[in-house]
Amino acid sequence: MNLIDTDRVFATPRTSATEGRIVWAPGKSLWTLTHMAGGLAAIVVFPSWGGVAAFLVLSALTLCAGHSVGMHRLLIHRSFNAPKGVERVLVWLGTLVGMAGPIGMIRAHDMRDWHQRQTVCPPHPSHGAGWLRDAWWQMHCEFRLTHPPRFVVEAEIADDPVYAWMERHWMAQQLIPAAILFAIGGIGLVLWGVSLRIAVSLIGHWAVGHAAHKGGHQGWEVRGLPVQGYNLRGLGFLTFGESFHGNHHAFPHSAQLGVEHGQVDPGFWFIKALEAVGLAWDVKRPDSEPAREGLARVRQSLHAESENLAHA
Ligand SMILES: [Zn+2]
Ligand SMILES: [Zn+2]
Fold it and tell me: Which ligand has the minimum distance to the alpha carbon of residue 229?
C-alpha cells in the first residue's frame, strides 16, 4: 500500500499503518488513575475555595499558554515564531499539563495525523470506538504498530538540552508546582492544583479529541481522507479554541483556530497579545499557506454560505 509521509513521519518499505495491537500501557494507566484518585480526594477530603482557585488558575495557564499555544500551535505546527526563551517557558507549561514531554507530545500528535492521512485509519488513531472503549484506549493503552514508520524530530528540538530534560523527567516536573502549593496550603492544595488538574486535563483532552472526530459543525472538509475533524460549538472558551478541530484539519498551519464568526479562540488572543508586545511574529492565518489537497467548503445552510473567513 502506498503510504503518505508527513514532516516527521516516514514510511519504510516494511511499514504498515494498520497492522498492530492495542496494549495496556502500565505507566500511563497508573499515572492517570493516581491523579483521578488524588483529584477525588481533593474534592471529598479537602474542599476549599483556595483549592478551586488554584485548580482554575493553573488549569487555564497550563492548558491555554502551555498545551494549546506552546506545545500545539508553536512547537508542533510552528504556526508562529517566538524567542527561544519564551518558547521554552510555554512548552514547559505544556509539559505541566501532565500528558507527556515535548517529544512525546509531538510523537502522539504526528503519529495520529500520519494515520489520519492514509487511505485506511485504524480505530485507535481515528477515535473509531465508542466513548467508553475509546477512553480506555486513549488514557490507559497505546497502539503498537508491528512495522512502524520512522519518526524523526528536527534537530532544533531533538538536540535542545532543556527539552531533553523535560522529556526525561516529564512526570517529575509536577514537583515544582507541588512544592509551591504545599508551602502555601499543604497537601490539600497540592491535590487540587496538581492531581485534580491533571485528571481533568487528561479526561478533557480525550473527550474533545473523541467528540471532534465523531461529528459536529464543519466549515470545510478534506475530501479523500478516512477521518474528518469537526468543530464543537459552544466549547471555544472552555478549550481555549482547540474545540474548532474541523478548522484545524482544514488549516493545520494556522495559529488561528476559531476562524468563522462567533468562534471564540482564547489561545489566539494570547498569541495576539504576545505579538503586540513583540514576543511573537510571523503569526499564520488560514490563508498564509496554499490550501491543502482536497479542501472544500462545506455549505451548512444559507446563513453559513454568507459567512467568510473572519479576520479578527
Ligand atoms: Zn495539530
Ligand atoms: Zn484530528
Answer: 2
